[in-house]
Amino acid sequence: MFLVRANAYLQRKVNGLAGNPYLMSYDPGALDAALAAAVGDDAGLIADLRTAFLESAERNLDLLGRARCDANWQLAAYRLKGLAASFGVSGLMALADEAAQCAPGDPKMLRRLRAAVTEFALG
Questions:
Q1: What is the percent of the chain where pLDDT is above 90?
Q2: 24 vs 95 pLDDT, higher one
Q3: φ and ψ at 103, to 5 degrees?
Q4: Treating both helix axes as pointing N-terminal to C-terminal, what angle do 43-66 and 28-39 enclose, rounded to 10 degrees?
Q5: For the whole model, what pTM was predicted?
Q6: What does the pLDDT look like over 19-74, one tens digit per residue?
Q7: Do 65 and 55 contact (CB within 8 A), yes or no?
Q8: Is the dihedral of CA 24, 32, 108, 78 positive or negative?
Q9: CA distances from 5 to 1, 10, 97, 110 (A)
Q10: In Å, how far from its chain's centre is CA 86?
Q11: Is 42 exposed, middle or buried (0-12, 13-18, 19+ CB in 10 A)?
Q12: CA distance linking residue 72 with residue 24, whole number of Å
């Protein structure tokens, strides 16, 4: 319940950040900036939301890796895009949108997506 309320709060706050040019790259700081703008200096909440983002991104990457048809591939790509949008991570959002147009299981796209999510995990 806590994460549901926190995510709703975050979505309201981050919507205003979508056009921010500083959030257009795969910079791991973009996620941190969006979280800080949404919840302020609450380090515990930022850590929880960051963990929720990364866990959801990993699940969607796993779904992309297992997709064998266009419909499943596109569904997973659009879920990843929606996740990125809800956290204001425009660069990952654009990459996931690009992935939706690729063939299912495209290894190059999977590597690019994995690298982008790994940057957030390490950042």
A1: 51
A2: 95
A3: -70, 145
A4: 130
A5: 0.71
A6: 443 333 445 566 777 777 777 778 888 888 889 999 999 999 999 999 999 999 99
A7: no
A8: negative
A9: 6, 8, 27, 31
A10: 8
A11: middle
A12: 27
